[in-house]
Write a structure and sequence with these properties.
Elements lengths: L2 E12 L2 E12 L3 E5 L6 H9 L6 E6 L2 E4 L12 E4 L11 H11 L4 H14 L15 H14 L4 E5 L7 H18 L3 E5 L2 H7 L2 E6 L2 E6 L1 H6 L4 H6 L4 E7 L6 E3 L2 E3 L2 E2 L8 E6 L5 E3 L9 E11 L4 E7 L4 E6 L8 E5 L5 E5 L2 H5 L1
Parallel strand pairs: 3-8, 3-9, 6-7, 7-8, 14-21
Antiparallel strand pairs: 1-2, 1-4, 4-5, 9-10, 11-12, 11-15, 12-13, 15-21, 16-20, 17-18, 17-20, 18-19
Helix pairs in contact: 2-4
Length: 361
């Protein structure tokens, strides 16, 4: 598969503070990559470098095999085959919706017939009928987001950059727009680099997900692999593995011990006998039983501290015998103070080398 965008060793600093560490990856034609991470991890900086709004400090950015930024090259934003959709919409307030969408087409001197054809297609596709003669202030947040997308798509860019475009919408509208956007991008077969801090948004939209933390890449994988095999404890927490139990590797490094119980799992680091280990388990992958099950792997005894009703299930907050916190979901209420046994399969248990500082870092 041919790459439409390629970065090699790209990095960026502001006032000697490195905000993007050397980063290399490729985006293929028709592919959708989501860049996932918290605020301040370098997501928006990455998009601005690709768009040409910022210059790289080092490394090379190529588009269609040609360098657009690097030590010897720089192509300005208006000459790059990219368009960006911003989280604050960035619509011209004094222009009608029609004028906003046609703005880039007129600048590129697209003829009137082609402009009308693209406008008709976009307004039908993005449900903008009846809005074209309004001003942005006369449109809702969801409508403004669709208008911003229509304006970005009008010039048919090779790459569409999207900087948290749903973050300013309320929860209900964001959920609706997420599904609509996934369907739209799939129908258009648009090549997209999409920035978000929302895991569900990334899972809904992406072919592959890049996880950024502190300006560096922690993992780059397909959604299924990212969830079931998170490369680091930090990625595991991002994926919802909120149970982090401190333990020790057995002498042969084949398993870990928790309260004297042997725990097996997917070792994401090479276990060394006697070294500290972190066992991470997703709350949805734990079964709660009032009795110990025979011939079942990975069981530990706990005591219930609190039961929180969340609609379709109860969130059960518990403590292990060595006073570590653990939580799981259950369809029935369990009385605080009750002793329970937790079961979780080795295939769904992540084991990493390190201690509490590894989790927090």
């Amino acid at each position: 598969m041919n790459s439409i965008l390629k970065l090699e060793g790209v990095h960026k600093s502001f006032d000697k503070q490195e905000v993007l560490r050397p980063l290399s990856f490729a985006l293929n034609h028709g592919e959708r990559i989501c860049v996932l991470g918290p605020s301040g991890c370098g997501k928006s900086t990455l998009l601005q470098l690709i768009a040409g709004l910022l210059r790289v400090d080092g490394g090379i950015i190529e588009m269609d095999g040609k360098p657009v930024d690097g030590p010897k090259h720089y192509i300005p934003p208006e000459k790059r085959p990219v368009n960006m959709v911003f989280q604050d919409y960035a619509l011209w307030p004094h222009m009608t919706i029609r004028q906003n969408i046609e703005y880039g087409l007129k600048r590129s001197r697209t003829d009137a017939t082609s402009r009308k054809q693209r406008l008709d297609r976009l307004q039908a596709m993005l449900q903008l009928e009846g809005l074209l003669d309004r001003l942005p202030s006369q449109c809702s947040g969801g409508q403004q987001q669709r208008i911003g997308m229509a304006r970005a798509l009008a010039t048919e860019p090779s790459i569409l950059l999207m900087d948290e475009p749903l973050s300013n919408l309320d929860v209900k509208l964001r959920n609706e727009m997420r599904s609509e956007l996934a369907e739209l991008l799939s129908d258009l077969e648009t090549t997209v680099l999409y920035v978000t801090h929302d895991m569900l948004e990334a899972f809904t939209l992406a072919d592959r997900i890049m996880v950024l933390r502190d300006g560096g890449m922690d993992q780059f994988a397909e959604p299924h692999q990212l969830f079931h095999r998170p490369a680091t404890p930090w990625v595991a927490q991002l994926m919802g593995y909120h149970n982090s139990l401190l333990s020790m590797f057995t002498l042969d490094g084949s398993a870990v011990l928790i309260e004297g119980q042997y725990i097996s799992g997917q070792k994401m680091d090479r276990g060394r006998g006697g070294q500290q280990a972190i066992v991470m388990i997703h709350p949805q992958q734990i079964t709660i039983s009032l009795n110990r099950e025979e011939e079942t792997h990975n069981q530990i005894e706990v005591r219930v501290k609190q039961a929180i009703f969340e609609g379709i299930h109860w969130r059960i907050m518990m403590r292990t015998k060595d006073n570590q916190s653990i939580q799981a979901f259950n369809t029935e209420y369990i009385e605080p103070g009750s002793a329970c046994w937790l079961q979780f399969s080795p295939e769904q248990t992540m084991i990493y080398e390190g201690g509490a500082d590894t989790i927090n870092g």
